[in-house]
């Protein structure tokens, strides 16, 4: 049953061809997006495995709800109702403010802000790479998810989708070493970029001048520059500032607000980047 | 259509992929052995006529997809590892477990260095020596992987010389 002579090209030749193919693939994958198709096809094979791995955890959550006592459910219900009431009251004010904002923007003939469509997705609990900050969620192109779509949780920006398959997508968290996010300080509008570090608990804010007005505790929000993320979502809180006179820039770290390692449910946001104003519209 | 060898090979490879993605506590993630490579190494040594660089390349592509890496990153390393194992399989078969483990340690170091090199070019190389820990844990766990897979093969697959 064992073949005595190898058929086809020799092993060395095959290995050589495959090595060259790998290098070509890496280059193509890095520079162009055509390889997404290959990736999606292979993901179809991986998805059942990921789903199976996640199954026990899914079962745990299911059992947690099914087997909890009536008293616990009642307590939770009461707590949530209170929270709902509080939020309703806050929303009433928000509604009025939003209408006022819209009217003012119309007076200024600025682009009106559109409401954002959202979709709740669940994180599939599989380990990807301990040195990358990636997670897999259970919504994909079948649900209308697109590449570099913003992902948030209740506290702030989590990241963006990088690979979208039919029923799942890979989300790169803002703490990934290859992620950068345009932000501004909500106190004074100072613009900056928040770079991921590969560590889950802090972001790097480089290129801020030594004398810039930035303090510990400042909240960083998305600036909407770059167009991928909607503006004015909270991102992080400045946690560490080091100003040394022999360096051109201050060393600043910020703690992400989103619960990057704890959230199970995340929210996908459909956001329409503001259209550029028509060129014949002369500004005063 | 599948013969028993293929069936048990595919089964163990799927198991390896699942082990590679199984959620572990944060501290343990850095120590996770490179299951897919270990299983492929075993099958290359046991059935060099049917498992070789081509299978390794496709498994590497799957690893790339599951790691969210560039397509070809792990595939490149895996092809080289399996090529060397394939060329030396007769020598490795008669080597002791300790010697096999040492060889696997250095081969996996090479693979990890290749992956790290590409990550470095992409500007996202991790800055800790723990990065190379999977090579060590894989080498340490190799004897058990070898024994388990050998027993599985003897039970479910055709008899071969090894």
Structural overview:
The complex is a heterodimer of chains A (284) and B (162). With 284 residues, chain A is of the alpha+beta class. Helices cover 32% and strands 25% of the residues of chain A. The longest helix of chain A has 38 residues, at 70-107. The termini of chain A are far apart. The longest helix of chain B is centred in the last third of the chain and has 25 residues, at 97-121. In chain B, helix 1 (4-21) packs antiparallel against helix 3 (35-46), helix 3 (35-46) crosses helix 8 (133-156) and helix 5 (73-87) runs antiparallel to helix 7 (97-121). Classes of the chains: A alpha+beta (284), B mainly alpha (162). At the A-B interface, helix 1 and helix 2 of A face helix 1, helix 4 and helix 5 of B.
Task: Summarize this entry quickly.
The complex is a heterodimer of chains A (284) and B (162). Chain A has 284 residues and is an alpha+beta fold.
What topology does this entry show?
The complex is a heterodimer of chains A (284) and B (162).
Chain A: H1 11-31, H2 36-66, H3 70-107, E1 117-124, E2 134-137, E3 150-152, E4 157-164, E5 169-173, E6 180-185, E7 191-196, E8 203-204, E9 208-209, E10 219-222, E11 234-242, E12 249-256, E13 265-270
Antiparallel strand pairs in A: 1-2, 1-13, 2-5, 3-4, 3-13, 4-5, 6-7, 6-10, 7-8, 8-12, 9-12, 10-11, 11-12
Chain B: H1 4-21, H2 26-29, H3 35-46, H4 53-67, H5 73-87, H6 89-94, H7 97-121, H8 133-156
Oligomer: heterodimer
Low-pLDDT segments, ≥5 res of chain A: 276-284
Report mean pLDDT of chain A, rounded to a whole number: 86
Q: Mean pLDDT of chain B, rounded to whole units? A: 90
Binned strand content of chain B: under 5%
Helix content of chain A: 25-40%
- Report strand order across the widest sheet of chain A: 1-2-5-4-3-13
For the biggest sheet of chain B, the summary is: none
């Amino acid at each position: 049953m064992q073949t005595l002579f190898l058929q086809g090209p020799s092993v060395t030749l095959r290995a050589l061809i495959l090595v060259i193919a790998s290098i070509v693939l890496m280059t193509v994958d890095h520079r162009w997006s055509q390889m997404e198709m290959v990736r999606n096809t292979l993901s179809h094979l991986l998805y059942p495995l990921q789903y199976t791995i996640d199954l026990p955890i899914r079962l745990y959550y299911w059992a947690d709800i099914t087997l909890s006592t009536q008293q616990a459910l009642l307590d939770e219900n009461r707590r949530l109702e209170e929270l709902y009431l509080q939020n309703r009251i806050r929303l009433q004010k928000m509604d009025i403010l939003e209408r006022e904002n819209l009217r003012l923007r119309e007076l200024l003939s600025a682009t009106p802000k559109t409401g954002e469509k959202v979709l709740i997705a669940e994180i599939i609990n599989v380990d990807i790479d301990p040195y990358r900050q990636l997670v897999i969620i259970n919504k994909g192109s079948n649900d209308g998810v697109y590449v570099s779509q913003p992902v948030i949780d209740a506290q702030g920006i989590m990241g963006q989708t990088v690979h979208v398959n039919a029923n799942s997508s890979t989300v790169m968290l803002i703490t990934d070493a290859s992620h950068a996010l345009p932000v501004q300080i909500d106190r004074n509008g100072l613009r900056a970029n928040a770079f991921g570090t590969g560590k889950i608990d802090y972001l790097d804010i480089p290129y801020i001048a030594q004398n810039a007005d930035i303090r510990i505790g400042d909240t960083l929000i998305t600036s909407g520059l770059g167009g991928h993320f909607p503006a004015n979502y909270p991102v992080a809180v400045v946690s560490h500032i080091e100003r040394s006179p022999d360096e051109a820039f201050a060393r600043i770290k910020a703690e992400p607000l989103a619960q990057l390692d704890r959230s199970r449910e995340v929210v996908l946001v459909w956001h329409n980047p503001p259209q550029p104003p028509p060129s014949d519209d002369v500004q005063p | 259509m599948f013969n028993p060898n293929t069936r048990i090979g595919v089964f163990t490879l799927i198991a390896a992929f699942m082990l590679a993605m199984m959620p572990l506590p944060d501290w343990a993630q850095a120590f996770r052995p490179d299951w897919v490579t270990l299983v492929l190494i075993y099958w290359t040594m046991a059935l060099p006529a049917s498992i070789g660089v081509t299978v390794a390349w496709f498994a590497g592509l799957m690893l790339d997809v599951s790691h969210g890496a560039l397509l070809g990153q792990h595939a490149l390393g895996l092809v080289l590892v399996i090529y060397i194992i394939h060329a030396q399989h007769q020598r490795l078969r008669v080597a002791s477990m300790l010697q096999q483990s040492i060889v696997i340690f250095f081969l996996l170091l090479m693979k990890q260095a290749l992956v790290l090199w590409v990550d470095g070019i992409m500007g996202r190389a991790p800055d800790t020596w723990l990065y190379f820990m999977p090579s060590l844990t894989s080498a340490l766990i190799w004897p058990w992987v070898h024994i388990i897979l050998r027993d599985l093969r003897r039970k479910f697959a055709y008899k071969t010389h090894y």
